[in-house]
Amino acid sequence: MTRVYLDHNATTPLRPEARETWLETLQSLGGNPSSVHTSGRAARAVIDRAREQVAGALGVTESGVFFTSSGTEANNLALLGTLRAAAPGSALTVLASDHASVLEPARQLESEGHELRLAPVGPEGLVDVEGLARIARGSALLSLAAANNETGALVPLGEVREALGDEGIPIHTDAAQALGRIPLDFAGWGVDLATLSAHKVGGPVGVGILVRCTPQPLRPVLFGGSQEEGLRPGTENAAAIAAAARAIELSVAEQEEASARWRKQTSYLWSELRRALPHLQAVGPPVDSPLRLPNTLNILAPEVEGRVIVTRLDLEGLEVSAGSACSSGSLEPSHVLIAMGFGEESARSAVRLSLGRETDDAQVCRAVEILSKTFSLARKSG
């Protein structure tokens, strides 16, 4: 059976260039990057070169690039590190639809005495910029996902910064899903901190990045070493970091062409599904909206359990997800859809399709066949 993988928002296959870089580096290095001998200096040089590559691809300074173990760790460092460096009781504003790696540290900070403000999203997952600015007034940090991992809804970060005026509220953005899918413009967006994750763009699992775009005060959340200027102690995985930098560099270079292809493929996928199954509903901004990731399609199938349909699709050779991979084992309905105003039953019927670098037109056509057949059978048996 030829399988079709449409779960790239969960993770992407390791791209050949990143694999080659990883293996070559593993074979050539044997020292700890913190050691001062020849082997250690060679490992340090690899990390320095990777930092230079990432900074060049993103248009940021090398001194602002910090390597972590994951996007989750980078988000934790951004939120915990900022609020713990702020005055006691300071406010943190986050979106109610944000990823768990933002919401959970936010709740931890609330338990430590900080004020937590949950900003709402509309029925398409979009933010009311002026309303968000009002809620965030006086916050020590405003954290907003540049792109939602489940619906693909985008936040116009530049407009948010403008709406905040001269108050100087720091902004953190989780840009893990935006990388390689839309142009990243941290300076134009006016953000102070940004999170990235290498495995979302064909890099290895186990490498995240926190970009500090301004001199935003941060306290470490881990202790025991001076690596990454003391913000992220622990011996760096030089080979994985080198592979991650290569993947990020390539994904940024290819973004424009890839996004145009994904937008056409997603539009075709949705139009064909609606033609075959008019009862289906797309979640989030309209498929052709510029406020949506070009590779992401979230659909609701009334009267069908999302996790059940995902299993049936897998048996037919199509790999998708029922929301975030980080919570796919949960019995709870999608908190993202709940935040958008959907009821629990509807929120449990969502299926997310996300395209990637290796998705070709033949795979999209095959996906339409499998989805149409499986949804039809599920509806008849349901």
State the CATH superfamily name of the largest domain: Type I PLP-dependent aspartate aminotransferase-like (Major domain)
Q: Count the beta strands.
A: 12
How would a textbook summarize the main sheet?
7 strands, mixed
Total separate domains: 2
Task: Please give the count of helices.
Answer: 12
**Secondary-structure element string:** EHHEHEHEHEHEHEEHEEHEHHEH
Strand content: 5-15%
CATH first level of the largest domain: which class? Alpha Beta
Note down, in words, how this protein is organized.
This protein is α/β, with parallel strands linked by helices and 382 residues long. The protein folds into 2 domains: 4-12 and 255-381, Aspartate Aminotransferase, domain 1; 16-249, Type I PLP-dependent aspartate aminotransferase-like (Major domain) (Aspartate Aminotransferase, domain 2). It has 12 helices and 12 strands. It has a 7-stranded mixed β-sheet with strand order 2-8-7-6-5-3-4, with helices on both faces. The chain has a 3-stranded antiparallel β-sheet with strand order 9-10-12. Helix 9 crosses helix 12. The longest helix is centred in the last third of the chain and has 39 residues, at 238-276.
